[in-house]
Design a protein that fits this description.
The complex is a heterodimer of chains A (213) and B (109). With 213 residues, chain A is mainly alpha-helical. Chain A contains 11 helices and no strands. Chain A is 78% helix and 0% strand. The longest helix of chain A is centred in the middle third of the chain and has 29 residues. Chain A is globular, with a radius of gyration of 19 Å. With 109 residues, chain B is mainly alpha-helical. Chain B has 2 domains: 30 residues; 73 residues, no CATH class. Chain B is 72% helix and 0% strand. Chain B contains 5 helices and no strands. Chain B is elongated and about 65 Å long. Classes of the chains: A mainly alpha (213), B mainly alpha (109). The interface between A and B is large, with 97 and 65 residues.
Chain lengths: 213, 109
């Protein structure tokens, strides 16, 4: 699991280099935001010269799923003091959620579930920071003609394919993808944000449509 | 002077912490509305599609369709679908891109 996140961390480093924001800001992203897909999307938008509002809206839209994770895990961690829960929330990621929820769901949470959570979340955090730094360094060591920046759309492709696992999800992807391609002439980033929003709405509508059948 | 990008990063970080902490730290007790819960299911396919496709298919007047990138993306999508592996997808896509670029340089260079 820890190894599985390193390609995303490396990509975050490469994307930071590609966007030309420098090493400090690239690491700042990984340290402060610590959420790969939103970091990559934000860097892509910054690179395209998008308005700050669009960058923030898009990144927070991508991270909205953390709200769902938080809602699922919250009751299992409610017995802990606040000084524990405050850093634990910061460490919440897709992988830490997936590992922990499969363990605590269905039965009474064992008193040690927070240790289990930290055992999953902390190594992920360390690996994330190291792989971002490595990606930035590797990007500088490789000549530009290798087009290493192309791994950013490839990473999103690797995330997209398994996300399309139902007909409504395919509709959402199709609508969002088509509109974002058509919206390339709009001010930077607007096509992405509008396309993604329309795709989400289309997915919900498609789900309702097929359920009524 | 501080780079204004730091404020942007802080805003995204603060917002993301708000999502993460909503139920863990701030003790949200309310149930998520059903509509939001359903919409969340479609955030990944919609957002990722909107991020990938413009990178592969460019319609602006200045830049033309980039054949090698499109082909590399198609092969990578196939690999992602068959293997579900991130690293396999990245490696396949980059290799196809490099091979096609090298071939293009041989033929037209």
């Amino acid at each position: 699991m820890v190894a599985a996140i390193s390609p995303f961390g490396v990509t975050a480093g490469v994307a930071g280099l590609d966007a030309g924001i420098g090493f400090e800001l690239t690491m700042g992203f990984s340290l402060i935001v610590f959420a790969g897909a939103s970091q990559l999307a934000a860097l892509q938008l910054i690179d395209a010269g998008a308005a700050s509002v669009l960058v923030i809206v898009t990144a927070l839209l991508i991270n909205l799923r953390m709200l769902m994770y938080s809602a699922h895990l919250g009751p299992h961690l409610a017995h802990l003091p606040l000084r524990w829960r405050t850093p634990m929330a910061y460490l919440l990621t897709d992988q830490a959620y997936a590992l922990t929820i499969s363990r605590v769901m269905g039965n009474e949470p064992p008193p040690s579930s927070h240790w289990f959570y930290l055992g999953a979340a902390l190594p992920l955090w360390v690996f994330w920071q190291l792989s971002t730094a490595f990606g930035y360094w590797a990007g500088t060591a490789v000549p530009p003609s290798w087009e290493l920046g192309f791994i950013v759309p490839l990473v999103f492709l690797a995330l997209l394919v398994p996300a399309v696992r139902s007909r409504p999800a395919a509709v959402a992807a199709l609508v969002a993808g088509t509109l974002s391609v058509l919206g390339q002439g709009l001010p930077a980033g607007l096509g992405l944000t509008l396309g993604a929003s329309a795709g989400i709405i289309a997915g919900v509508l498609a789900e309702a449509w097929w359920r009524d059948d | 002077m501080i780079d204004p990008l730091w404020w942007l990063i802080l805003a995204i970080g603060a917002g993301t912490y708000l999502w993460r902490g909503s139920f863990i730290v701030f003790g949200g007790r309310l149930q998520l509305p059903d509509l939001i819960r359903r919409g969340l299911n479609y955030v990944p396919p919609a957002v990722f599609a909107a991020l990938v496709l413009p990178g592969l298919v460019r319609l602006t007047e200045t830049s033309q369709l980039d054949g090698p990138r499109l082909a590399a993306g198609a092969v990578a999508a196939l690999v992602a679908w068959r293997t579900r592996g991130t690293i396999a997808t990245l490696v396949a896509g980059m290799i196809v891109l490099w091979v096609l670029r090298a071939l293009g340089a041989q033929l037209f260079g």
